[in-house]
């Protein structure tokens, strides 16, 4: 029985890793309203502006993602990651973001990385 639980736990961990999307994150600063998804409705500060592919013409509005920092993108901050994850809600489009990039609120970025880094490598999953 114990072996079965261990096996189930291992499969669950591998499944979550297999669905992780690799990319990069930057951050933007307040004001966070109005947003493309919710107009002047305040959705808090744990938010994300999605690249156009992820945003999918507003289909991603309100979707939640768990984001973690995986490393640096430049030589500015050698160890930018905090080792924590953050759960964010898609509220906006990031028109300047590349296809592998998302723009986190400054507060959400600070949970996973040192804001002095400006841009970090990430993995994110829909939750």
Task: Please give the structural blueprint.
Elements: H1 2-18, E1 21-28, E2 47-50, H2 52-55, E3 64-72, E4 85-93, E5 101-105, H3 106-112, E6 120-126
Parallel strand pairs: 1-5, 2-4
Antiparallel strand pairs: 1-6, 2-5, 3-4, 3-6
Number of E-type strands = 6
Give the oligomer, counting copies of the same chain as homo and different chains as hetero: single chain
Instruction: List the helices and strands in order.
Output: HEEHEEEHE
The major sheet is characterized as: 6 strands, mixed, barrel
Q: How many helices does DSSP assign?
A: 3
Calculate the terminal CA-CA distance, rounded to whole Å. Answer: 29 Å
Strand order of the largest sheet: 1-5-2-4-3-6
Strand content: 25-35%
User: Which residue ranges are poorly predicted, with pLDDT under 50 across at least 5 consecutive positions?
Assistant: 4-8
Summarize model confidence as the mean pLDDT. 90
Radius of gyration over alpha carbons? Answer: 16 Å
Helix content: 10-25%
- Structural category: alpha/beta
Q: Characterize the overall form.
A: globular
Q: What does this 3D model show about the protein?
A:
This protein has helices spanning 2-18, 52-55, 106-112, and strands spanning 21-28, 47-50, 64-72, 85-93, 101-105, 120-126. With 127 residues, the chain is an alpha/beta fold. It is globular, with a radius of gyration of 16 Å. The model is unreliable at 4-8 (pLDDT under 50). Pfam families: DPBB_1 (PF03330).
Which key terms come to mind for this protein?
127 residues, alpha/beta, globular
Entry summary:
Helix content is 22%, strand content 33%.
């Amino acid at each position: 029985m114990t072996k079965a639980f261990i096996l189930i736990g291992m499969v669950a961990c591998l499944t979550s890793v297999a669905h992780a999307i690799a990319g990069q994150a930057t951050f933007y600063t307040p004001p966070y309203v109005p947003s493309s998804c919710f107009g002047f409705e305040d959705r808090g500060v744990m938010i994300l502006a999605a690249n156009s592919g992820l945003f999918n013409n507003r289909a991603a509005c309100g979707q939640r993602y768990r984001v973690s920092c995986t490393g640096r993108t430049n030589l500015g901050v050698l160890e930018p990651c905090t080792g924590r994850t953050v759960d964010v809600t898609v509220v906006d489009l990031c028109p300047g973001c590349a296809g592998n990039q998302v723009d986190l609120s400054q507060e959400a970025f600070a949970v996973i990385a040192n804001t002095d880094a400006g841009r970090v490598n990430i993995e994110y999953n829909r939750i």
